[in-house]
Amino acid sequence: MHANFTVRAGLRLTIAASIAAVVTGLAGCSNNDMGTMPGMDHGSASPAAATPAGSPASSASGTPAAGPHNNADVMFAQMMIPHHQQAIEMSDILLAKDGIDPKVTDLAQQIKAEQGPEIAQMSGWLAGWGQNPSPSMGMDHDMGGGMMNQADMDALEQATGTEAAKLFLTGMVKHHQGAITMAQQQVANGQNPEAVALAKRIITDQQAEITTMNQLLDQL
């Protein structure tokens, strides 16, 4: 394999393991007891130290979401950013191929158009909250959050035509299901109105896309 492929494979493992670490902790959290995940610096984002809009946290490095925030909001952004990044990588792999059903490529373009701006929005929130806008956590045991593992990504990259479209759709259905679970946790536990609103939009948009992907799979 050439160097770029090796680097990309390593990045995929890091992203997937990061999601696994966060999702495991998030499932047992509540609005009043979010705890601190290993390798994550939540800083002033604890519920007791919620940051109001217009505080000094707002800076040129990022704009925090309006209103107070808690650890659930920080964790949501820190886990959803790498999750979205992998969805975009999956879409880019598919879009680089020839002979793909136009309906599938249209969906891949739609996913990129939705999730790219959401990454920028969440990165701005984290920077404004005094958190790392490019979250990274250590390796963990299992993949989670519907993330594709390295073997899955390699298979997608090597596949062609209808096989590639099927692998993309099957993987993305699972990926979206993981995002919906994370977003539902945010709706239940988050404090920041903008972050909760984004989570609700992710649930609505990605559930609709799951329906579309299942229909496309039936047609291929």
Automatic annotation (TrEMBL):
Instruction: Give all residue intervals belonging to the DUF305 domain.
Output: 73-217
Alphabetical keyword list = Signal
Record's compositionally biased regions (Low complexity): 43-68
List every stretch annotated Disordered.
Answer: 37-69
Leader peptide range in chain numbering: 1-20
Which Pfam family is one of those matched by this entry?
DUF305
Known PANTHER family for this protein?
Answer: SLL0788 PROTEIN (PTHR36933:SF1)
Protein name per its UniProtKB record:
DUF305 domain-containing protein
Query: Where is the organism placed in the taxonomic lineage, from the top?
Result: Bacteria, Bacillati, Actinomycetota, Actinomycetes, Propionibacteriales
